[in-house]
Amino acid sequence: MHSFNVGQTYFPVKPSHTVPARSGSSATNGKAFRDYLTESVEKAKRSQEITFSQHALNRLNERGISLDETKMDRLAGGVKKAADKGARESLIMMDNVAFVVSIQNRKVITAVDDGRMKDSVFTNIDSAVFV
């Protein structure tokens, strides 16, 4: 307990609450701040990941369309551009492949290659992005 002096009178000061001593970087429930940070970063990454509907996966497989990490990054960039503009459903054109993407869900709905694009009509989209 501490005290402070006003004139000749001493007033004891009691802390209103106590703070438990820390052991290393652990929080009170035994979980380290680093663990919370790692979980938060992983959750943010998962929320930014692009997923594919079963229909889109079937179309990619049927049409021999493969997406390496570089292409996935480009597709994610297109989704981000559309999201930044407030798009909901977007047509993203990349390397002669059209991807219809639900921007809000970050999910590819379908994919059409250039061989099947002739005479195609894309409906229910509100934007187009070329990457």
UniProtKB/TrEMBL annotation:
Cross-referenced Pfam families: Flagellar_put (PF12611)
Entry-linked InterPro entries: Flagellar_put
Protein name: Flagellar operon protein
Lineage: Bacteria, Bacillati, Bacillota, Bacilli, Bacillales
